[in-house]
Design a protein that fits this description.
Largest sheet: 6 strands, mixed, barrel
Radius of gyration: 34 Å
Order of helices and strands: HHEEEHEEEEHEEEHEHEHHHHHH
Number of strands: 12
Distance between the termini: 25 Å
Strand order of the largest sheet: 4-5-10-7-9-8
Helix content: 40-55%
Shape: elongated
Strand content: 15-25%
Number of helices: 12
Length: 436
């Protein structure tokens, strides 16, 4: 018996008992849709966590801090003093650049300064970093461009930075709408004189003039910051230190301008490699963290929920498998004489078993395909209802899940039809022919 004849006989047999076949396929549809939708909710929750964390920063960026100080002891759950002191300096930065899977490394310094444009001012955290690494580190702008290697007196301003008139009272500043400043077409002065724009301004402090080349989104963790080349911010810090010494003397709490950095950012080329690179950095004696730590923690909290959801879907598929087995057993009883005739005219045992396995596979395949269509519809409804209620829960069905579900449903059909097919293969030809 060739494959074409076997397929033709299988389809005709299933269609001959179409009501029973449709009911059996319906069981597979329900089982497939249950598994896919349940698993898709777990996948959607993980994607939602990742999207939420992405709004805080890139999942592929590792934040590195000097070793020593208070650290978290995972064994006891308490904070403990780490005596070892590891300096985060230029040498360490160069060593990290040599790590495999590292795209970019940038030391980071911070300074809280005042921006002034005309009569308006704004206070913001100014972040100094390597301008050539800004794009690789995942920063984005809504207007203009990011910093590049050739930039010196240039800044990228956060979209949430708001200006105000320093001559207004505190009540008036926050009770009126902030003035609209065309930041990309105005000259900006950076200063550590908090009285700039008022009659108390210190004339001895020379402002640092820069140009805004880009503006970020008003959303996200970095929307309140201003970014500039690290070497230029170091100059401002040096001037501020000298000014503080003049104002407060040698015993002032001026900043220490050593070449030890308080933080270094490391961009990894693939998210799957973040934990490995992070461990390498820890082995150097530094503290390191990334948003993938938070993501792993979130996924761990939902692991049990995803297992429960998958188990519920699996029970539905188990019921469908029993239904397929029952259908195939009934088919054998009804076609006993037909099986005997096939054996007598020369059909091999392998052909007979293959015929019934093919029928079971068709039932599984049809149920899997229809179940996937139903799953996409249910997923759409879940997302629509969740969005309407303001819930973060969502359902996501990637292509691999859809194709895997069809293959799985087909496999379940074949597995459920295996015992009945073996029973048909073992029937005595003479006994089967005599059966009415």
């Amino acid at each position: 018996m060739n494959k074409k004849d076997m397929i033709d006989m299988s389809l005709r047999s299933l269609w001959k008992r179409k009501v029973r076949t449709i009911l059996t396929v319906l069981g597979v549809v329900i089982g497939t849709a249950s598994i896919v939708v349940m698993v898709s909710i777990g996948i959607g929750m993980n994607q939602g966590f990742a999207e939420q964390l992405e709004s805080w920063g890139s999942l592929q960026v590792i934040h590195v801090y000097p070793g020593g100080g208070m650290v978290y002891d995972e064994a006891t759950g308490d904070m403990k003093q780490e005596n070892k002191k590891t300096e985060l300096n230029a040498r360490a930065v160069e060593e990290m650049k040599e790590f495999a899977h590292v795209d970019a490394v940038s030391p980071v310094i911070n300074e809280y300064l005042l921006l002034s444009v005309g009569k308006y001012v704004a206070d913001a955290s100014v972040v100094g970093l390597d301008p050539s690494a800004m794009e690789a580190l995942g920063y984005k702008v809504e207007e203009g461009r990011l910093l590049t290697e050739g930039d010196s007196k240039s800044v990228v301003v956060g979209g949430a930075v708001e200006f105000y008139d320093p001559k207004l009272s505190w009540e008036m500043r926050y009770s009126t709408d902030p003035p609209q400043v065309d930041i990309l077409n105005e000259k900006i002065n950076l200063t550590y004189d908090w009285n700039v724009g008022t009659r108390h301004a210190d004339k001895s402090i020379k402002p640092f003039r820069v140009d805004a080349v880009g503006r970020t989104s008003a959303e996200g963790a970095d929307s309140w910051s201003v970014f500039m080349p690290i070497r230029e911010l170091e100059k401002i810090q040096k001037e501020r230190k000298e000014w503080e010494k003049e104002q407060y003397g040698g015993n002032s709490a001026a900043r220490n301008q050593s070449k030890e950095y308080s933080e270094v950012l490391v961009k990894v080329d693939e998210m799957e490699q973040v934990q490995a690179v992070q461990q390498q950095i820890k082995d150097m004696g530094f503290r390191a963290s990334s948003l993938t730590d938070e993501l792993a923690s979130m996924q761990e909290t939902t692991k049990m929920l995803r297992l429960v959801l998958g188990a519920i879907g699996a029970i539905s598929m188990l019921v469908a498998a029993i239904s397929i087995t029952n259908t195939m057993v009934m088919s054998i009883y009804e076609r006993t004489k037909e099986i005997g005739i096939m054996k007598v005219i020369g059909a091999s045992l392998r052909d007979i078993r293959g015929l019934f396995l093919m029928e079971a596979a068709f039932i599984g395949f049809a149920g899997g395909v229809i179940g996937i269509v139903l799953s996409y519809l249910l997923s759409f409804l879940v997302n629509m209802v969740a969005a309407g209620q303001g819930s973060t829960m969502q359902s996501a069905i990637p292509l691999w899940l859809a194709l895997g579900a069809v293959v799985f449903a087909t496999g379940v059909g074949v597995a459920a039809g295996y015992l009945p097919a073996n029973r048909a293969m073992k029937l005595s030809a003479l006994t089967a022919i005599k059966t009415e």
